[in-house]
Amino acid sequence: MSEADNTAHLRFPHQHLLGIEGLKEQDINCILDLADKYVEQNRKTNKKTDILTGLTQINLFFENSTRTRMSFELAGKRLGADVINMSSSGSSIKKGETLLDTASTLNAMQPDLLVVRHGNSGAVKLLSRKVNCAVLNAGDGKHEHPTQALLDALTIRRRKGRIAQLTVAICGDVLHSRVARSNIHLLNIMGARVRVIGPSTLVPGNIKDLGVEVFYDMKEGLKDCDIVMMLRLQTERMEGGYFPTISEYFTLYGLDHDKLSVAKEDALIMHPGPMNRGVEIEASVADDLTRSAIQEQVEMGVAVRMACLDLLTREKRGAI
Amino acid sequence: MTSYTLFKNARLLDPATGLDISGEILIQDGKISDIGEQVTTPADAEVIDCGGKCLCPGLIDMRVFVGIPGADYKDTIENTGEAAAAGGVTTVCVQPVTDPIIDDMARVEYMETRARKAKVNFIPFPAITKQLEGKEMTEIGLMSKAGVKAFTDGNKSIANPALMSRVLRYAAMFDALIIQHLAVSELSGGCMNAGALATRMGLPGISTMAETIMLERDIRLLQSVPTRYHAAQITCQDSIEVVAAAKRNKLAITAGVAVPHFSLNEYAIEEYRTFTKLSPPLRAESDRVAVLGGLKDGTIDVIVSGHDPEDPESKRVPYELAEAGVIGLETMLPVALEIYHNGHMPLLDILAKMTCNPARILGLDGGTLAKGAPADLCIFDPDVPYKIDPEKMVSLTKNTPFDGRPIQGRVLRTVVGGKTVFEYQA
């Protein structure tokens, strides 16, 4: 692809991508505009360009992940970067090395991009202070997962033509969800109306302060929505007894055709994956191709991450 | 041979009596022998000119954690003593959270022996329960008879209500003071104040209920026994109201607060600064303001530093994984003076909470400038402005939440038993 294309002017005025909070509308549009271009590139037979040739991207995953790590890996490789994966199992992390020692060690290897996921909120920010390269947050604890919110935004923008003025319901386990937090910030920045729906044990009341309306009844909350974002029920974090049974949860909060009927007729269904079918979403709803954007989200994920890797290295590559 | 020292030209502040005069104070063999506008001084007395600065009783800090024994990479007794001296603190009350845990008389004596090398007085508080496990009580009777002033499980609560009920009844027989850390453990799994900020940051919160529920339970238990009970740290409005009501009902309850809880709120965390992690956590602004009110109206009797050295390895980690604890001996007085400078409280009232009040609660001779009291003194200039610089502190660990804070007030000289143990060098 020629550098003389219509995206060459795009600037992302940040060293890292650590979260959505603090970004401006134009920052987000900048990423989405460039991602649109990469969607086209990814649909061609030859998906590869060489703009990141010679650059090293390290995917550092302290928490298990398949799809996010693969998506970042694919994004880096399609741009020509050398991509290395490091995960917690079997590495020095398991042997007791501290986060900051790991950061210093990797930094000494002169990477250009560090993609980091960590189980603790704020950990990626902490690490970013100790390295010289661009850091992308691939999810930190319950705090943020910015590229997920960006790929959701790209999906919405392509399907609906805009984000502003849409009514978006985020449903389920908001308490434990970094996806929910990043999406709430992004949708507010872009001018959407945001609702959160879930049981009171999984939706902290003070989340109102982030600029959302809170509903504890699924049908009330879904009424006239344009977008229904389901969250994965993080059953591995449910040791505290946040609801009585999966069956009760599905009955009250699982997305089925009946509950969905109160949303707008063309309401889009989204899910960050991996889905628990029959827990937070009925299989036939998830598979309804006219309404479900779940597969599209995965596709947009690669494009959005390519855009982020591109933008965060533009200054270094002398592309601006 | 009798030795005399005269501190002259001082603004004498004795919160125990409300004394605030310009005058001088004569020390004879480590004790205060005379005080007044002008005192008769033997010709061979050493004379120290205080230059018109404030002179008050040395501060008594009821809540200090030490790394010795067990964790001498964090600090040493000597270093804690030096930090205390630099902060005008002449008596530190050591929490039993050490390795081994101070939970019998032999270990109390061991700590006292180790502390003889330190520049200030150390008073070890032994544990209420063996090994701080909250299961069996320690030898409260024997230790009380041997002179122990107070018992505490440090940064752990006595969770079992049946045990706490027995502890309170048993302690009453010896007039022992029981100091409780207020935290229902099942509600304390988080790492910062519960609320909108915690939700935004994705950090698990600790509700003020964790504190107030435990306090209310203990007060219910106290209604049937005359035990002297001290709430180690009060951090929220609900707890203030509960303590105030208990005091109106004439229960033998007193309460303390650590300096950070009235000088910082939860927003000090900024971008996951682990030096702001405390137990209990820094609270909402409304709670901080309520705590200030409790200090002013006397609901809170005591100000402590909560000094708790943590080495960098315990703090240079993600917030949730960081150890709770901040240092505070050197910043206790200057930061507390903020509420004098901003007109919230008179100087003597603030000093009372670090001198005569803890002395009264613990039954100590110090905390006053009365004739016959130990010559533990703090000479300070309340007005000199500067910024807190961790690198200039004598504490081995630098985990202060006040890094860079502009303050007014500097300790110029600290005297323990008539001997100068600290002198400020510009």
| End-to-end gap of chain B | 34 Å
Write down the overall geometry of chain A.
globular
How many domains of chain B? The number is 2
| C-alpha termini separation of chain A | 16 Å
Decide which structural class fits the backbone of chain B: alpha/beta
The count of β-strands of chain A is: 9
Write the CATH homologous superfamily of the largest domain in chain B: Metal-dependent hydrolases
- What name does CATH use for the topology of the largest domain in chain B? TIM Barrel
Strand residues, percent of chain A: 5-15%
The ordered H/E elements of chain A are HEHEHEHEHEHEEHEHHEHH
Greatest interface by residues involved: A-B, 24 and 17 residues
Structural class of chain A: alpha/beta
* Fraction of residues in helix of chain A: 25-40%
Largest sheet of chain B: 8 strands, mixed
Mean pLDDT of chain B: 96
Polypeptide structure, described:
Chain A is of the alpha/beta class and 320 residues long. Chain A contains 11 helices and 9 strands. Chain A has helices spanning 25-42, 67-78, 99-108, 123-128, 146-160, 178-189, 218-222, 246-253, 257-260, 283-286, 294-317, and strands at residues 56-61, 82-87, 113-118, 134-140, 167-171, 193-197, 213-215, 227-230, 268-270. In chain A, helix 6 (178-189) links the parallel strand 5 and strand 6. The longest helix of chain A has 24 residues, at 294-317. Chain A is globular and about 55 Å long. Chain A starts with 24 loop residues before the first helix and ends with a helix. With 426 residues, chain B is an alpha/beta fold. Chain B folds into 2 domains: 4-55 and 374-423, Urease, subunit C, domain 1 (Roll); 58-362, Alpha-Beta Barrel (TIM Barrel), CATH 3.20.20. Chain B has helices at 77-86, 105-115, 140-145, 161-173, 196-201, 209-222, 237-248, 259-263, 285-297, 312-315, 332-336, 338-341, 347-352, 356-362, and strands spanning 4-14, 19-28, 31-36, 46-49, 54-57, 59-64, 89-94, 121-124, 150-152, 177-180, 192-193, 205-206, 228-231, 253-258, 302-304, 377-387, 406-416, 419-423. In chain B, the strands form 4 sheets. In chain B, strands 1, 2, 3, 4, 5, 16, 17 and 18 form an 8-stranded mixed β-sheet that branches. In chain B, strands 9-10-13-14-15 form a 5-stranded parallel β-sheet, sandwiched between helices. A 3-stranded parallel β-sheet of chain B has the order 6-7-8, with helices on both faces. In chain B, helix 7 links the parallel strand 13 (228-231) and strand 14. In chain B, helix 4 (161-173) crosses helix 6 and helix 7 (237-248) runs parallel beside helix 9. Chain B is globular, with a radius of gyration of 21 Å. The relative contact order of chain B is 0.17.
